[in-house]
């Protein structure tokens, strides 16, 4: 594949956008988007206005099938998509502007 930037044809835009989006749920029911309020993350579904996920947060990632994670300061907050409590992973000396995190959930 060419590394040159190109205009994405209209028929391919939805697929291209979803390749870069943080989609939540299986099947996906929402995606993480920047809020109108700077420094906040929102959830956008198929209908309605985006709803607040977190203030002072950045760089969201899908955390397995049932959670979403994002940075708050230098810590990583992991929230379930359903009921349950949020967990915080305190990361010493994280990479600057860490992106494209992955998670290994183990076998089974």
Give a topology summary.
Elements: H1 13-20, E1 22-24, E2 30-34, E3 40-44, E4 51-55, E5 58-63, E6 67-72, E7 75-80, E8 87-90
Antiparallel strand pairs: 1-2, 2-3, 3-4, 5-6, 6-7, 7-8
Plain-language structure description:
The protein is mainly β and 108 residues long. Helix content is 7%, strand content 37%. It contains one helix and eight strands, in the order αββββββββ. Strands 1-2-3-4 form a four-stranded antiparallel sheet, covered by helices on one side. A four-stranded antiparallel sheet has the order 5-6-7-8, with no helix packed on it. The model has no long low-confidence stretch (mean pLDDT 83).
In short:
The protein is mostly beta strands and 108 residues long.
Mean pLDDT: 83
The structure class reads mainly beta
- Across the major sheet, the strand order is 1-2-3-4
Coarse shape: globular
Strand content: 35-45%
The quaternary state of the protein chains shown equals: single chain
Q: How many separate domains?
A: 1
């Amino acid at each position: 594949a060419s590394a040159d930037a190109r205009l994405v044809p209209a028929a391919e835009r939805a697929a291209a956008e979803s390749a870069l989006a943080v989609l939540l749920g299986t099947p996906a029911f929402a995606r993480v988007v920047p809020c109108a309020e700077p420094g906040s993350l929102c959830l956008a579904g198929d209908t309605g206005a985006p709803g607040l996920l977190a203030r002072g947060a950045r760089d969201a990632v899908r955390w397995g099938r049932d959670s979403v994670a994002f940075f708050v300061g230098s810590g990583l907050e992991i929230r379930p998509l359903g009921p349950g409590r949020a967990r915080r992973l305190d990361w010493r000396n994280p990479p600057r502007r860490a992106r494209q995190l992955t998670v290994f959930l183990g076998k089974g």
